[in-house]
Amino acid sequence: MKKLALVPASLLALCLAMPAGAEGTGSTPGSYGGMSNDSPSSGSMPPSGNTGPAATGDTSGQPAQSGQSGQKASRKDRNFIEDAITGNLAEIQLGQIAQQRAQNPMVRDYAGMMVNDHTPARQRLMTMASQYGVTPPTELDFMHRRMDKKLRKAEVNEFDEMYIKSQVKDHKKMVELMEEQIQDGENPELKRFASEMLPKIREHLVMAQRLEQQLEQQKEQREQQQDQQQGQQQ
Known about the structure:
mainly alpha
């Protein structure tokens, strides 16, 4: 029997405050697409069932690639796999940096959740990449390499805000990626994967947006306190 992955106490209020429909159906808070955090490799790949034109057609005019099992993916589906793997890799690596450098406990907990949730998702994508003959990206893309450097060099008082803003931006893009695959993807298994991931990614986005608001409020309060202190000294 799987253990239920728990949301850190500091983030529980953010989950409870999220609007109805933001949470993922069929997945527990802190899990990714129904996969438990404490057993990342336990998320088994659903039966493919991907036969026929809907699964193998390549409308781009480019020849489809075949994996070891003989299954194929169109150019659009291959691009989805590559982009999704890159996105998950970025969430893991940037999250690991934030776990070490973040000052706000809620930001650290959020970063830990990103590592825990995106690790099994990436593992599942790597399995599908092998299945469909796609060479998986193993390094960050240019944009995320640049963000990696910025986060490592950021001043202590700038890190939390910089990290969370990047998370809002990245999760918006990831939501768009999943929605596009659900709408226009050709392979049924990849469409199903995107459908399973989308609710949790939306949840991550809402949490990042709320953290961004809280950090901005805390920054304003600190600035007001500093202004008051300067006024009293004068």
